[in-house]
Amino acid sequence: MVRIDPRTDVLGIIDVQPTFMPGGELPVPDGAAVVAPCNRLSTTLFRHAFATQDWHPPGHVSFASSHGAAPFSTATLPYGEQVLWPDHALIGSPGAALHPGLDLTRVDAIFRKGFRPEIDSYSAFRDNDRVSTTGLGGWLKERGFRRVFLCGLALDFCVSWSAIDARDLGHEVFVVTDACRAIAAPLPAGHTTMEEAHLAMEQAGVRLCGVDQLVAA
Ligand code: VGL
Ligand code: ZN
Predict the structure, then answer these.
(1) Minimal CB count within 10 Å: which of 126, 156, 174, 185?
(2) Residue closest to 163 by CA, chosen among 129, 114, 207
(3) pTM above 0.90, yes or no
(4) 50 lines ligand 1 (CB under 6 A)
(5) What tens digit of pLDDT does each residue of 69-121 get?
(6) Which of 15, 54, 87, 120 is an active site residue?
(7) Domains of the chain, earliest start first
């Protein structure tokens, strides 16, 4: 059991946007199922939360269409290997809005990422070049939040990269796995992006938990 301290614990709701749900441009299997547990976490356990939105301009470097390539292929970009996705999370589009069913009562701030045309950003903290930031790290510090609890989409991309960066910044981090869903794409080596993300989170000291393991103070 993990007892939530509503003053110093914060909930991060990652990319709960229709673009990542069935019917959207880059659907995560069963993605809409995260809305209810995310709401339960934010309304019954936490006093403070932040949300993120993937937020890409047309022609974004992460779009396969920008390279004349097939979705889910990869490209080598100046900052490293990049998976190329279908066009998604277009700035101002309905799919890029926060899901209308998401309860925002406890959401004090919304951070957008992936708006720089030439760099993708999985993490809520830093772009994939690992240099340019969103400001979230400074916000957590100024607000005095110590432990970060994450939920949302997709577990093997934006949630896990955010969790690892929060560890890097010195936070204790919990990923609430049953309030997340994964893309779980197969990789050439035979394993999946989910297995890779699990390993990376374990190495970074990210803790995994379920909604029912968290209790009110
Ligand atoms: C995401 C792929 C591309 C995510 C965003 O939110 O996990 N994944 N852009
Ligand atoms: Zn994206």
Answers:
(1) 185
(2) 207
(3) yes
(4) no
(5) 999 999 999 999 999 999 999 999 999 999 999 999 999 999 999 999 999 99
(6) 15
(7) 2-58+88-215 (3.40.50.850)
